[in-house]
Amino acid sequence: MSSVGDGQALLDLMSNSAMTTGSQSGLRNVTVRKMKEQLLAKLALLAPHLPTNTLDELIDGLGGPASVAEMTGRRGRVVSLSNGSVQYQLRSETDISLEMLNITEKQRFMDGEKSIAIISEAASSGISLQADRRVKNHKRRVHITLELPWSADKAIQQFGRTHRSNQVSAPEYIFLISALSGEQRFASIVAKRLESLGALTHGDRRANETQDLSKFNFDTKYGRTALETVLKSTVGMTQPQTKSGNYPPDFFDKCRTALLNVDLITKDERGLLSVEKESTNMTRFLNRILGLPVKLQNHLFAYFIDTLASTIQHAKKTGRYDSGIFDFGASGEHVEVAETQEFVGDPAFGTATTQLHQVHVERGLSFAEALEKLNTDTLPGEGLYLSQRVRSGKQLAALVKVANASANRFMIYRPNTGLQSRSEKLSIFQKKYTKVEPEVAEKWWVMQYESSLSVCNHAFWQGKCRHTMAGHQCNAGVRRRAYHILSGSVLGVFSQLEGVFSRHGGSNSRMQIARVRVPNKRLVGILIPTACVEDMKQTLSRVALQAAGGVVDNPITV
């Protein structure tokens, strides 16, 4: 809404109010009139500096009331006219009451007369906007949420406006979240709620395959562990898991003061700081940091995210990380099914079979692919870099691309492992790497890319690997990895599957669901650890032989 329109609407409203008051009292007080004129004059000076009304500006930008179906609880709006002026108009139409106007606007959208609908929480009750088979407008709905609500239940109700039964296609959801770290709280509660419902985050192979909300769910065991580490390191009870050089010099001092002010840490009568057990409640933490100054809030949340990444990385190194679903190909890796063996299952489950797939995952980046990425919208700081440190006469090559320009975060690509999971600040990265021309980086990039097909990082840099020398397989830094996935009628051989896992123990005893995406094909099954593959093949062969009525020699008791 225009600032002039704001002022004129306010003038009309105040004038009408003053006249009504005057007619009721029978008095025409000259002093009151002068005060009113002075106030209106001050408002007229202030009007050009007032922000426009978001909803009116949005409607005007999308084509005006003729193109946008508005379903809200307000009675009027300010409309931009063709001559550049604005005018306050009532939303009510001839022969249509305000109570029925939202229903009429809904029908216009469903009939395709208007292609855009704006709906507020006040008017959402009973409104369904899905691509219903019974209406004319069958276009796929794109549902943009401008502001996530505090309640996860309310958020789900909002999503349900465009996702209902009898629809031609499911909607696409877009959530707008600002760079303010405290606002991650809203996405976090919605993500956790959707995950608990088994909805659109991950775990459902029919769900959205490009983006999900699971990355916003910090209320996990790893998130709570990271939060405890953040709070304890702030009060000096433990050491930070990330490098303190990534933050301002007085970062921890400011954090202690701020966290003390919002009761996330406490101070006893002796002046000693401590962390209470309930302080590691994730929802409480995200709520409380909303009260911190924006700059400190963002720094503290960045410290939490770095600590969380370090916690997850440690869990992966020790083999204790539980990712829920191991999703091959979700991050752009090249995936192919190299080999498939089929086994007949238990006759009690009919003619269903079980398949053991060998899957190859290529996660590296060739030099040609690196150049292609480099030549696309090159921004300051982007380019090819070489490590300043030389090990065994070799240098490490990397490609740097902007991830978030406003936050000065950059994506790092490496020849053997492709895109890294964590972005970095360029200033920190440049302490260890130097930017070079492509022809200088090509030699080292190609060398590491080609050797990483079969040689691990240890052997590449040191010439040998104690794991491979001991007869074990080492995949550290290997470009192409092989995995085995059991799919098909898994329930028919589930007891045998449990037996195989239990016999090998340790990290091999944990079952993990895997999902594979290859062109024109999707696989969902159980990830079989390399140490269990041969045992799994023998066990499935025995089950198949039993199903065929054969005699099993030396059967394994499971």
Description:
This protein has 558 residues and is α+β, with helices and mostly antiparallel strands. The chain is 36% helix and 19% strand. The chain has a six-stranded mixed β-sheet. Strands 12, 13, 14, 15, 16 and 17 form a six-stranded antiparallel β-sheet that branches. Strands 1-4 form a two-stranded parallel sheet. A hairpin with a 5-residue loop joins strand 7 (266-267) and strand 8. Helix 5 crosses helix 6 (184-196). The chain is globular and about 100 Å long. The N and C termini lie far apart (73 Å).
Biggest sheet details: 6 strands, mixed
Shape field: globular
Radius of gyration: 31 Å
Q: Give the spatial strand order of the biggest sheet.
A: 9-19-20-18-11-10
What's the helix count?
17
Secondary-structure content class: alpha+beta
**Portion in helices:** 25-40%
DSSP strand content: 15-25%
Q: Tell me how many strands there are.
A: 20
**Low-confidence parts lasting 5 or more residues at pLDDT below 50?**
198-211, 551-558
Overall pLDDT level: 79
Through-space gap between termini: 73 Å
Task: Walk me through the topology.
Elements: H1 3-25, H2 30-46, H3 54-61, E1 68-71, E2 76-80, E3 86-90, H4 98-110, E4 116-119, E5 142-145, H5 152-159, E6 172-175, H6 184-196, H7 221-234, H8 251-261, E7 266-267, E8 273-274, H9 282-288, H10 294-317, E9 325-328, E10 334-344, E11 353-362, H11 367-374, E12 383-387, E13 397-404, E14 409-414, E15 418-419, E16 424-425, H12 426-429, E17 433-436, H13 438-451, H14 457-462, H15 466-469, E18 480-488, H16 494-504, E19 513-518, E20 521-528, H17 533-547
Parallel strand pairs: 1-4, 5-6, 9-19
Antiparallel strand pairs: 2-3, 7-8, 10-11, 11-18, 12-13, 12-17, 13-14, 14-15, 14-16, 18-20, 19-20
Helix pairs in contact: 1-2, 5-6, 7-10
